[in-house]
Amino acid sequence: MALADISRVEIEKAIEECDRLGRDAFLAAYGFRRARRYVLVHGGGQYDSKAIVGAAHGFLPGERPLTPDTPGFSGGAKHAARLLGRLGFDVVEEPTHDAPTHDGPTHDELIHRVTHLKVHRSAGRPALYKPIVLLWAMGRALRGEARLLPWSDTEEAVKDLLARHGRRGERLRPDYPIASLHHEGVWELRDFTGPVTTAHGDAGVKRWFAENQPRGGLVQPLHELFRDSAVTRLAVLDDLLDTFFEDLDPAPLLADVGLDDGESDGDGDPAEPRPAPARAPEQWLLTAAEYERGSRLVEEKEARNRGRRRARTTLGPVRSRAARYLVLGRSQGRCENPDCAGQPADVTDRHHPILEVDHVIGLAEGGRDHPSQMVALCPNCHAVKTRGRTREALRDVLLRVARERHEAGGGRSAEAPEASG
Fold it and tell me: Within 10 A of 329 (CB to CB), how many other CB atoms are there?
């Protein structure tokens, strides 16, 4: 048993697995029972501390998960709880009653609800009520704003967005999408009595919100995911835009809700940067669990969009912002060409590394929009790969690097290639 070797990376992998399987299935898989005293509180949910540490041990190289009866291993203050506290996690002695346990929907189930919305259609095209509300809420989460708002504030903000960006006959009725999202388990409503109105009808729906004035917002686990996990936020953003805005320009809406990143989402030079809050360099470092989750979301989108083209002035392939973010995070701010002759020490106005994400095999040539075939290159190496006489040999090297770094998990434990010279 090597508890001292467990880091946040292994703990987060165990948490990710619990989210994916659900609490009861996770406990059954590892042979644990629910925690009786010490509970890990993380990301808006509760986890059984001993089971999480036991599973995390199995993510150490060459080690196996710990079982409940492993000699010398307990969930108490001297073992699992102490380790979690030392690693910076919050551990409470009693399960808190205001944080959801994982008897409810897992993170993956919540994301599935957002990316598989049921919406009304007009002339064969999906209405924009729900996507606009969700993009607004995602922008608020990204900025760290309050999760729950009074109904009057929600109504005013969503009405304004519907008036400015509704393109398919949407009425100025925030009550419709909010009621529907609540019944789908995506939106929380508080401070009222009796059942929540359905999203059907007209005067009755509007009257219920006017009379009850509920506070509301995204359910807590989803709000925290959008706030804390850039790759999850970008993957969901990709999905919403591809599903609902295929024949529209979403840029003005993204600017209004604060979700435009001001930079290129594919090959080529970045767009002109705009003023924005600084992003600390360490925020680009991804944990292995984040990289794994992001890759899975990218792969799901890739499978749904295979062969699709964007209906714009020119037909271009659908590209993934999340895949681009994964590659930038994996690079840790350094060019991924192992023979790079230099490194720019500067960053952009948005504190992003001066790197360009490149598809080693172009999408038009059958390449994948996936981190396993994408690399982050400094401008000079990008130019060599695109126009240099040695570009064919370099492409073979970069394909190997992309595959190896993707298979290594892309997290903090992955070594960045050293620059020579």
Answer: 25
The DSSP-derived string for 92-136 is ESS--SSS-BTTS--HHHHHHHHHT----EETTEE-SHHHHHHHH
Considering just the CA atoms, what is the radius of gyration of the chain in Å?
23
Among 367, 273, 279, which residue's Cα sits nearest to residue 325?
A: 279
Q: Which DSSP category does 313 fall into?
A: S
pLDDT of residue 133: 97
- pLDDT mean across residues, the chain: 81
In angstroms, the CA 65 to CA 154 distance is 47
Q: Which residues of the chain have pLDDT under 50?
A: 95-102, 262-282, 310-317, 411-421
Q: Which residues of 201-240 are buried (b: 16+ CB within 10 A; e: fewer)?
A: eeeebeebbeeeebbbbbbbbbbbbbbebbbbbbbbbbbb
CB 13 within 8 A of CB 56: yes
Give the whole-angstrom CA distance, residue 244 versus residue 115.
10
Q: Which residue has the tokens 């009621």?
A: 179
Phi–psi pair at 189, nearest 5 degrees: -125, 140
Q: Is the separation of the CB atoms in 409 and 371 below 8 Å?
A: no
The pLDDT value recorded for residue 375 is 95
12-65 pLDDT, tens per residue?
A: 999 988 888 888 888 888 888 888 778 888 876 788 999 999 999 989 988 888
What is the pLDDT at residue 261?
64
Q: Which residues contact 75 (CB under 8 A, 6 or more apart)?
A: 35, 37, 38, 48, 49, 50, 53, 81
**Who contacts 312 (Cβ-Cβ below 8 Å, separation ≥6)?**
none
Kind and range of the H or E element at 189?
A: strand 187-190
| Beta-carbon contacts of residue 410 (< 8 Å; ≥ 6 apart) | 286, 288, 291, 295, 326, 329, 330, 371
Cβ(39)–Cβ(91) below 8 Å: yes
Helix residue ranges per DSSP H, 166-259: 175-183, 203-212, 220-228, 230-244, 251-257
Q: Which two tokens stand for residue 360?
A: 């080693």
Stated as kind and residue range, the H or E segment containing 405 is: helix 391-407
Q: Read off φ and ψ for residue 27, nearest 5 degrees.
A: -60, -40
Extract the tokens encoding 332. 């840790």
- Give the C-alpha distances (Å, rounded to integers) separating 202 from 120, 176, 206: 15, 9, 7
